[in-house]
From TrEMBL, chain A:
HAMAP family: UreG
The protein's name in its UniProt record: Urease accessory protein UreG
A GO molecular-function annotation: GTPase activity
Subunit-level organization: Homodimer. UreD, UreF and UreG form a complex that acts as a GTP-hydrolysis-dependent molecular chaperone, activating the urease apoprotein by helping to assemble the nickel containing metallocenter of UreC. The UreE protein probably delivers the nickel.
Keywords, in A-Z order: Chaperone, Cytoplasm, GTP-binding, Nickel insertion, Nucleotide-binding
One cellular component term from this protein's GO annotations in UniProt: cytoplasm
Source species of the chain: Streptomyces canus
Sections of the chain in a coiled coil: none
From TrEMBL, chain B:
The keyword Endoplasmic reticulum appears for this protein: no
Coiled-coil stretches noted in the UniProt entry, renumbered to this chain: none
Gene name of the encoded protein: ureF
Protein source organism: Streptomyces canus
InterPro entries the record matches: UreF, UreF_sf
Name of this protein: Urease accessory protein UreF
Compartments, record wording: Cytoplasm
From TrEMBL, chain C:
Subunit description: UreD, UreF and UreG form a complex that acts as a GTP-hydrolysis-dependent molecular chaperone, activating the urease apoprotein by helping to assemble the nickel containing metallocenter of UreC. The UreE protein probably delivers the nickel.
GO CC, any one term: cytoplasm
A Pfam match: UreD
Main localisation: cytoplasm
Name assigned to this protein: Urease accessory protein UreD
Subcellular location: Cytoplasm
Family per similarity comment: Belongs to the UreD family.
Organism of this sequence: Streptomyces canus
Recorded superkingdom: Bacteria
Lineage, top ranks: Bacteria, Bacillati, Actinomycetota, Actinomycetes, Kitasatosporales
Function text: Required for maturation of urease via the functional incorporation of the urease nickel metallocenter.
A molecular function GO annotation: nickel cation binding
Keyword set, alphabetical order: Chaperone, Cytoplasm, Nickel insertion
Length: 225, 224, 255
């Protein structure tokens, strides 16, 4: 039982696990990572994998307005009313970390308009290795890097690689072509992250997003009382 | 209550959504009307004496206890551009969240209930200042300053303008900010007696036109 | 009309009412000094009036007022014979030009005067206040030209206030010229444009079906106000180009 939640509308404090009417709100999972690492493709794959079993919605934070949202709309991974784009004023990390107000409004509006929802995926705009989500906005976060961005990224660390609840090393199918050493990436990630999980994935392989979808299901099981 | 609350409220890092708005600067940059520090200064001066004055007087009036619903209507009447009305309400809603977390108040709660999708930002700003125990003049300064600080920091990002030049612009505008805050406060005192018609309604045609042009772009960096 | 040392004061008045035979009567049509009102041939149910300037002005110190009261069901179209030119006066001090328009329910007013030109050295404060009923209709054009050809403008301040059924739907001031608040000619306000104008259209049906906001070229826009009204705002390099934009907008809105 949360004693601090407000019953005034609109919902007051950001980290509150309840909606204004007292019901439990959707689990919010953030996906961050550098430009081009495959965040949007992972979101699209997760939507396809989970949409039949969960009520879900997506918030995108584009550098330029709506590009990612429009990709998801084109791919028709969810009905359009379940996808919202937040504009970030050239500072995507600000919108997910320092000033989360626009994103909070987007997730609340989605719950009001298409809810009840089980899960909201909040995708950050492509940013650098230091961008992480505020705990006031998401309950868990995934950091997505890819093999083509350099196999030394896990070793270099940074808040995203080190502290995200799940690290995805994406596009493993490209490793032979870009000369990335997958074993080394996995070992470096393990060293940086201790017990926190790492998934190596290729969305082009048969397994696709399966491991990540399973991780999301586990998060949801822990979240739902 | 502490005067220092003004520093919290006016801080550009106060999490109330301002970072995603350019105050019309993005449209003016694209139209070639802001190209550097000099034209930024002229832009900011024009915005300060029009939209800035109106916002400042609205905020000061809210601190003096004028009915926020009347102020919100007056703000609508002074904002012909629907894109700007939407932006003002969006920012008002975001500010409301930050203000309620910072200075809990039954007046803010009531306004949030009345305007679930947001009241005009300057009205919320005034009530936030009131909740923080600040005075009308403080809210007037805060609104006037925001009317120029937003475009200035947006232009740093849009034009890669030297940030020292942009800060210099704000510093040079300070004496005019003083005058705007004075005028806004004077108007707000009249509003308390004469009603909202005493509010200034200074307008800037190119801010209105530019806001609509901007809202129609398929691709942009800022929300307004 | 009175002319104390300070300047000319003049008030022209007109009242339009339904004549009970499907037309519009003008029981009051009072000219005053430089403000002459002339009835011209109307069409259908509509009466037409021209505002004819009998002398130049307003000059510094003058105070002109035009009042039009459109009663229930009456229809009036008002134009002016020529542009109004604000000029510097013998005496110091600003000139004032006040327009007060009242349109009762089911009444309709088309207020389409020629441009207001702010000549170098002049100082004019114009106010236009419009009170409409819930079912009144209005088309109003306002055009301001800053300076005659090749001339620096005078100081021109204007305020336009629209009330519909007692609620203020638009309240807008614009100040430009020497001595106006800073930045008036900068990138946020006029940016060197020498003509600025508005077209205000009020129709009860806009309450349910507002116009869609859109650009009209690069320097004009039509927007729905927070009430049953549409507003076109335009800036242009000169009066001719401004009129072209407003005419096109009016045609679109009337279509």
């Amino acid at each position: 039982m949360h004693l601090d939640h407000h019953h005034d509308t609109p919902a007051a404090l950001s980290a509150d696990a309840h909606r204004p009417d007292g019901t439990r709100r959707a689990l919010r999972i953030g996906l961050g990572g550098p430009v081009g690492s495959g965040k949007t493709a992972t979101v699209a794959a997760l939507c396809r994998a989970l949409r039949d079993e969960l009520s879900l919605a997506v918030v995108t934070n584009d550098i330029y307005t709506r590009e990612d949202a429009e990709f998801l709309l084109r791919e028709a991974v969810l009905p359009p009313e379940r996808i919202t784009a937040v504009e970030t004023g050239a500072c995507p990390h600000t919108a997910i970390r320092d000033d989360i107000s626009a994103n909070l409004e987007a997730v609340e509006d989605l719950e009001d308009e298409v809810g009840p929802l089980d899960l909201i995926l909040v995708e950050s705009g492509g940013d650098n290795l230091t961008a992480t989500f505020s705990k006031g906005l998401v309950d868990a976060q995934i950091f997505v890097i890819d093999v083509a961005g350099g196999d030394d990224i896990p070793r270099k660390g940074g808040p995203g690689v080190t502290t995200a609840d799940l690290l995805i090393v994406n596009k493993t199918d490209l490793a032979p072509y870009v000369g990335s050493d997958l074993a080394r990436m996995a070992a470096d990630a393990k060293a940086q992250r201790a017990e926190l999980p790492v998934v190596l994935q290729s969305l082009r392989s048969e397994a696709g997003v399966t491991d990540v979808a399973d991780w999301v299901r586990a998060q949801l099981a822990a979240w739902t009382p | 209550m502490s005067r220092a609350a003004l520093l919290v409220l006016a801080d550009g890092r106060f999490p109330a959504g301002g970072h995603a708005h350019s105050g019309g600067a993005e449209a003016a940059v694209k139209a070639g009307r802001i190209t550097g520090a000099d034209s930024l200064e002229s832009f900011c001066r024009g915005r300060l004496h029009t939209a800035g004055l109106v916002s400042s007087a609205l905020a000061a009036s809210a601190v003096l206890g004028v009915d926020p619903r009347l102020l919100d209507e007056a703000a609508d009447a002074r904002t012909p551009s629907p894109a700007l009305r939407t932006a003002a309400r969006k920012l008002g809603r975001q500010l409301m969240r930050a203000a309620r977390a910072s200075w809990p108040s039954t007046e803010l709660d009531a306004l949030a209930r009345e305007f679930p999708k947001g009241a005009h930002q300057p009205v919320v700003l005034g009530l936030a200042a009131r909740a923080a125990g600040l005075e009308a003049v403080d809210a007037a300064y805060c609104a006037a300053y925001e009317s120029v600080s937003g475009p200035s920091s947006a232009t740093v990002r849009l034009l890669s303008l030297d940030p020292f030049d942009a800060t210099g612009v704000l510093a040079r505008l300070s004496p005019e900010l003083d005058r705007i805050a004075d005028r806004a406060l004077e108007a707000a005192r009249r509003v308390a007696d004469e009603g909202v018609d005493a509010l200034p309604s200074a307008s800037a045609p190119l801010l209105e036109i530019g806001a609509e042009a901007h809202a129609a772009w398929p691709v942009r960096l800022f929300a307004s | 009309m009175t002319a104390p040392g300070a300047g000319v004061r003049a008030t022209a008045r007109l009242v339009a009412r339904d004549d009970g035979r499907g037309g519009t009567a003008l029981p009051v049509l009072e000219s005053d000094g430089p403000l002459a009102l002339r009835r011209t041939r109307g069409s259908g149910t509509e009466a037409r009036v021209m505002l004819v300037g009998a002398m130049s002005g307003p000059l510094g110190g003058d105070h002109f007022t035009v009042e039009a009261d459109i009663r229930e069901g009456a229809r009036l179209r008002l134009g002016s014979a020529a542009a109004t030119i604000a000029l510097p006066g013998q005496t110091k001090g600003e000139a004032r030009y006040d327009v007060r328009l009242t349109v009762a329910d089911d009444g309709e007013l088309h207020w389409l005067p020629e441009q207001l030109i702010s000549a170098g050295g002049s100082d004019l404060y114009v106010t236009t206040r419009i009170d409409l009923g819930a079912t009144s209709r209005l088309v109003l054009r306002e055009e301001q030209v800053l300076g005659r050809a090749g001339e620096e403008p005078g100081r021109l301040s204007s305020r336009l206030v629209l009330r519909v059924a007692g609620r203020t739907v638009l309240d807008q001031e614009l100040a430009c010229g020497p001595g106006a608040p800073g930045g008036w000619d900068g990138p946020a306000v006029l940016a060197g444009h020498r003509a600025v104008g508005q077209l205000l259209v009020v129709r009860p049906e806009f309450a349910d079906k507002p116009v869609t906001a859109q650009m009209l070229g690069e320097s004009a826009t039509v927007v729905p106000l927070a009430g049953p009204a549409a507003l076109v705002t335009a800036v242009a390099p000169d009066a001719l180009l401004l009129r072209r934009v407003l005419d096109e907008a009016l045609a679109t809105l009337s279509a």
